[in-house]
């Protein structure tokens, strides 16, 4: 029954007392106090990382999912052992959950290594939890499967179907524009986030769940079952059973699964989904840990021929429950098969091509997915830019931008992250026009932990005139649920002397997405002269924020800490 002749995981890993026999004795003595005997302990032990928290409403239903995974582990002859890690709820974590992604990755990796287990199931869902867990898995040398809580269901207000959080942003924009009054915006609030689970659109959580499935670190069909569904619980049980097999076989280590072809498949699916811009940063970080050489511009080149075929907000019309009813990620992969490496083998141990043989061809009722012959838009959902404003790269989600702004030249209006941004933009005395390019700086990883502030609000005066999009450029990220003509992740960031630091109000900026350029139209000598006046800010005085600011890698390299 034991996974290896060296005995149970309880015995193979040891607490250091200078007496191995005593360590084994004491472990079993303490576990006896919890009701475990040798029959329990001499079998594959499966650690289950639990991230339920009152501060993470998306993970509210995790106890039920945990029970399902436990049941699967027991059915397959393993012993489930729950352990907690940090939980990152997107909305309640200040100043931004991204500041703690690497901390969660460290916590998770270290616990997988430190605690006796033959394999692990990592339960996550909300935006940063899945990337952190993937990063941890890539660094761990035990079989690992990820399982997510699943998306929330949509709500409805005055006949409008609503889902977090693209609609949250749209309604708030309407409120700022004077279309919805205080009573209406408050009433709508109760219908935006209606159940447990992750955001209902193709935001970061949905994107990362989908890509985890594509990478092969989650069993097929795991990304889309809603949090409240039996399908979610059945997938949890399946995951519990499979991880026991993986632990017994000692195969399916994350580094065997996270190969370069697997990442290339993930990049192509990201384009087909019109997925979150945050996925670029997260995939770069996971690849780096997995020892896969992946560069930012490959997100553009690898996916150069893959069109948008999934009709979910913010790029399209629908919600995750619709994608689930349309067959989920396996149905998306079926359509994309001509573009994919079908020899990749994830946690199932079966090649992708073989798995897809069992997936039916596209049917009309699969409304959230279309075919390669009838794509929703041309290739290029995510474009990687370079230019004098972003020598090391910047990105834009073309699929969620306004076509008329993809080539635009306009004067800069600059705000620094330290300012009260909404107040500055809404000041009736400012002379912002819809031709302006809004520049936000000091919002990169070093400056601020890389918050999601890049989709700056449209100045109230313009919003009331009906303007809903403008070109915005920053070293920040934006939420996967956001939309607009927003250039993000400018690298190097302003805080380390990147060119954003040199921009002055009125400077002309030219965005040319077809040419993949973003440029500040001042001469090089002026740019350099302005940057000589720049001085780098002191890092925070102590603690995690100091370690983070001193060791975080730039956005174009995944923003992991340099020593991880
Ligand atoms: Fe948790 Fe959107 S806030 S997934
Ligand atoms: Mg988000």
UniProtKB/TrEMBL annotation:
<dbReference type="Pfam" id="PF24877">
    <property type="entry name" value="ILV_EDD_C"/>
</dbReference>
<keyword id="KW-0100">Branched-chain amino acid biosynthesis</keyword>
<keyword id="KW-0028">Amino-acid biosynthesis</keyword>
<dbReference type="Pfam" id="PF00920">
    <property type="entry name" value="ILVD_EDD_N"/>
</dbReference>
<dbReference type="InterPro" id="IPR052352">
    <property type="entry name" value="Sugar_Degrad_Dehydratases"/>
</dbReference>
<dbReference type="InterPro" id="IPR000581">
    <property type="entry name" value="ILV_EDD_N"/>
</dbReference>
<feature type="domain" description="Dihydroxy-acid/6-phosphogluconate dehydratase N-terminal">
    <location>
        <begin position="43"/>
        <end position="354"/>
    </location>
</feature>
<feature type="domain" description="Dihydroxy-acid/6-phosphogluconate dehydratase C-terminal">
    <location>
        <begin position="369"/>
        <end position="559"/>
    </location>
</feature>
<comment type="similarity">
    <text>Belongs to the IlvD/Edd family.</text>
</comment>
<dbReference type="InterPro" id="IPR042096">
    <property type="entry name" value="Dihydro-acid_dehy_C"/>
</dbReference>
<keyword id="KW-0408">Iron</keyword>
<dbReference type="InterPro" id="IPR020558">
    <property type="entry name" value="DiOHA_6PGluconate_deHydtase_CS"/>
</dbReference>
<dbReference type="GO" id="GO:0009082">
    <property type="term" value="P:branched-chain amino acid biosynthetic process"/>
</dbReference>
<dbReference type="InterPro" id="IPR056740">
    <property type="entry name" value="ILV_EDD_C"/>
</dbReference>
<dbReference type="GO" id="GO:0051537">
    <property type="term" value="F:2 iron, 2 sulfur cluster binding"/>
</dbReference>
<protein>
    <submittedName>
        <fullName>Dihydroxy-acid dehydratase</fullName>
    </submittedName>
</protein>
<keyword id="KW-0001">2Fe-2S</keyword>
<keyword id="KW-0411">Iron-sulfur</keyword>
<keyword id="KW-0479">Metal-binding</keyword>
<keyword id="KW-0456">Lyase</keyword>
<dbReference type="GO" id="GO:0046872">
    <property type="term" value="F:metal ion binding"/>
</dbReference>
<dbReference type="InterPro" id="IPR037237">
    <property type="entry name" value="IlvD/EDD_N"/>
</dbReference>
<dbReference type="GO" id="GO:0016836">
    <property type="term" value="F:hydro-lyase activity"/>
</dbReference>
């Amino acid at each position: 029954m034991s996974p290896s002749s060296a005995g149970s995981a309880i015995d193979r890993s040891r607490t250091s007392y200078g007496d191995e026999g005593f360590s084994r004795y004491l472990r079993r003595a303490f576990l006896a106090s919890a009701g475990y005997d040798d029959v329990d302990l001499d079998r594959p032990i499966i650690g289950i990382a639990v991230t339920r928290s009152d501060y993470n409403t998306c993970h509210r239903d995790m106890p039920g999912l945990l029970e399902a995974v436990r049941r699967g582990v027991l059915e397959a002859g393993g012993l489930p052992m729950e352990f907690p890690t940090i939980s990152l709820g997107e909305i309640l974590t200040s100043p931004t959950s991204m500041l703690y992604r690497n901390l969660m990755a460290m916590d998770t990796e270290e616990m997988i290594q430190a605690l006796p287990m033959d394999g692990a199931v990592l339960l996550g869902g909300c935006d940063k939890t899945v990337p952190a867990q993937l990063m941890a898995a890539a660094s761990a040398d035990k079989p690992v499967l990820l399982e997510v809580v699943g998306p929330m269901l949509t709500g409805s207000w005055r006949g409008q179907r609503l889902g977090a959080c693209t609609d949250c942003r749209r309604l708030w924009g309407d409120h700022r524009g004077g279309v919805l009054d205080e009573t209406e915006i408050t009433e709508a609030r109760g219908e935006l986030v209606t159940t447990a689970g992750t955001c209902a659109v193709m935001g970061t959580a949905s994107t990362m769940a989908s890509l985890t499935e594509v990478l092969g670190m989650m069993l097929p069909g795991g990304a889309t079952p809603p949090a409240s569904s039996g399908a979610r619980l059945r997938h949890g049980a399946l995951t519990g059973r499979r991880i026991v097999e993986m632990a017994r076989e000692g195969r399916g280590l994350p580094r065997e699964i996270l190969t370069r072809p697997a990442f290339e498949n993930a990049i192509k699916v990201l384009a087909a989904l019109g997925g979150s811009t945050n996925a670029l940063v997260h995939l770069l970080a996971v690849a780096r840990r997995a020892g896969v050489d992946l560069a930012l511009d490959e997100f553009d080149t690898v996916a150069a021929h893959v069109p948008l075929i999934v009709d979910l907000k913010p790029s399209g019309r629908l919600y995750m429950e619709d994608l689930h009813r349309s067959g989920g990620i396996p149905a998306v992969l079926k359509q994309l098969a001509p573009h994919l490496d079908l020899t990749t083998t994830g946690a199932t141990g079966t090649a992708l091509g073989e798995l897809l043989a069992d997936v039916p061809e596209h049917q009309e009722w699969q409304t959230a997915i279309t075919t390669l012959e009838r794509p929703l838009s041309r290739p290029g959902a995510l474009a990687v830019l370079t230019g004098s404003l972003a020598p090391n790269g910047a990105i834009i989600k073309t699929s969620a931008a306004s076509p008329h702004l993809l080539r635009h030249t306009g004067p800069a209006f600059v705000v620094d992250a330290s300012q009260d941004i909404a107040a500055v933009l809404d000041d009736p005395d400012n002379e912002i026009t819809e031709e302006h390019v809004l520049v936000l700086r000091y919002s990169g990883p070093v400056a601020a932990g890389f918050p999601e502030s890049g989709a700056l609000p449209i100045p109230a005066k313009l919003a009331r005139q009906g303007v809903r999009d403008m070109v915005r450029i920053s070293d920040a990220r934006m939420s996967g649920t956001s939309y607009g003509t927003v250039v993000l992740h400018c690298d190097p960031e302003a805080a380390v002397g990147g060119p954003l630091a040199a921009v002055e109000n009125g400077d002309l900026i030219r965005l040319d997405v077809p040419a993949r350029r973003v440029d500040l139209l001042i001469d090089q000598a002026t740019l350099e002269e302005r940057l000589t006046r720049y001085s780098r800010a002191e890092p925070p005085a102590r603690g995690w924020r100091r370690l983070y600011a001193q060791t975080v890698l730039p956005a174009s390299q995944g923003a992991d800490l340099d020593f991880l």
